[in-house]
Amino acid sequence: MTSAVPVICVDGPSGAGKGTLSQHLASALSWHLLDSGALYRVVGYACRQANVALDDETAVAQMARALNVEFQPGEKGVTVWLSAQDVTAGIRSEAGGRDASRVAALPRVRAALLLRQQELARTPGLIADGRDMGTVVFPDAPLKIFLTASAEARAERRFHQLQGMGESVSLARLLDDIQERDARDEARAVSPLVPAEDAVVIDSTTLSADEVAQAVRELADGRNLLSDASE
Ligand code: DC
Questions:
Q1: For the chain, what is the mean pLDDT?
Q2: What distance in angstroms lies between residue 215's CA and the mean position of ligand 1's atoms?
Q3: What is the reported pLDDT for 31?
Q4: Is 202 within 8 Å of 146 (Cβ atoms)?
Q5: Ligand 1 contact, 104 CB (< 6 A)
């Protein structure tokens, strides 16, 4: 299933720097990128648009199965298309994150997205960003990173990110949201947010994005995952 193609899993809570690290690695190594959080965000968004209740597991799972989503990498990042609609900004809002966390707690929704995610493991390799990449989706991956940071540091990073997107939010509210979402992601019965047993845990609270990327590249190199072309 996944064994022939190398996969680097980047799991961890919201705001730990997974997206930045994953995009850096994918572009530095010229590997494919799976932003699994965006998939859950698109499912939540599609349900809202279609007036599907986010706790109607059968209907939400049906939306997840039928999802016509495309990720288009570009100079300013990845554009996310839902059918012919650009939903990039819509899914990245705080409300989009809350909706994603709710639909992600439904086992049949997770099952509906499993194969879609595994199919993205293609040569020369895949960087898989999420919560359960190392525990469920790619259990045989040769390198699993669990990237974490204090809730305060994560709230502050998110605060600056949202400010950059023109969304005004309070830092205290963000911290509450992050703690609430962590609790839901960690406590859910299916695929809870926990490091895989063989994951390398990196705490990015006091590390720069470059320092984190360098540490992961060294780990990948130590496991012979970097071909000559990608070094
Ligand atoms: O990484 P993100 O903030 O875009 O994720 C949005 C939500 O989706 C988050 O609350 C957790 C959930 N998620 C998940 O349950 N499993 C994944 N592999 C990725 C995200």
A1: 91
A2: 24
A3: 94
A4: yes
A5: yes
Number of Cβ within 10 Å of residue 219's Cβ equals: 16
Average pLDDT over residues 107-124: 95
| Residue 1: pLDDT over 60 | no
This prediction's pTM = 0.91
Nearest CA to ligand 1 atom 11: 101
Which tens digit of pLDDT belongs to each residue from 177-217?
899 888 888 888 888 889 999 999 999 999 999 999 999 99
Q: How far does the chain reach from its first CA to its final CA, in angstroms?
A: 26
Q: How far is the CA of 181 from the centre of ligand 1 (A)?
A: 10
Domains annotated on the chain, with CATH = 7-222 (3.40.50.300)
Give kind and range of the element (H or E) at residue 44. helix 36-49
Q: How far apart are CA 150 and CA 32, in angstroms?
A: 29
Shortest CA distance to 220 belongs to which of 126, 115, 86, 135? 126
3-class DSSP state of 82: strand
Q: Could you tell me if 27 and 73 are in contact, meaning their C-beta atoms sit under 8 angstroms apart?
A: no
Query: Residues in the chain, how many?
Result: 231
- Tokens 């990110």: give the residue: 161
Sheet holding 69-74, edge to edge: 69-74, 77-82, 85-86
